[in-house]
Design goal:
With about 200 residues, the chain is α/β, with parallel strands linked by helices. It has one domain: 2-Layer Sandwich (Nucleotidyltransferase, domain 5). The protein is built from 7 helices and 6 strands, in the order βββαααβαβαααβ. A 6-stranded mixed sheet has the order 3-2-1-4-5-6, with helices on both faces. Helix 5 packs parallel to helix 7. The longest helix is centred in the last third of the chain and has 21 residues.
Amino acid sequence: MTEELTLLSDSYVVFDLETTGLYPNRGDTMIEIGAVKINNGSIVDRFDELIDPGKELSEEIIKITGIDNEMLKDKRKEEDVLKDFMNWVGDLPMVAHNAKFDISFVENAFSKYNMGNLKNIVIDTLGLSRYLESKERYHNLATLVKRYNIPWNEDKHHRADYDSEGTALIFLKMLQKLELNNFKTLKDLYKYPFIVIRN
């Protein structure tokens, strides 16, 4: 990663996970990884794959995500998909909305599959929204797409590929606001641990 690049000209991977539940340390796992790669202010590549969790999904998860057990039948396992995803990511900064949740699953899987330590910078658009719009009460994706005039289909919400693209378009608008407020490079965000949650 080259820190001399401006915020908008730098490259990022914006990603989202769908999971079997909320707690990776209690056995919950990923069922979808969706991501887009941004370069110089545009989406240039995509990653999306469903994952067989090796167990039946709860009715609640099926209702939330629109992913059912039949869709996951014969899909690849979490370890294989995650390894391919991280090879695709490389050393780029990773961006997610409420990133601590998604990163908890990634780091748990790194430990489970003896993949070493996650070394990528991680940026949280939730923390970034709270910084940029501190007077606003709500900072969820459905609110932010309206705030930033991003086209959005609520029926597709909670699928990782769709949410990652929406988050990416929001993130690009946020980068424009940051540059207007004299933030020049990614390093300028390091002093805000609620925005850059690991560097």
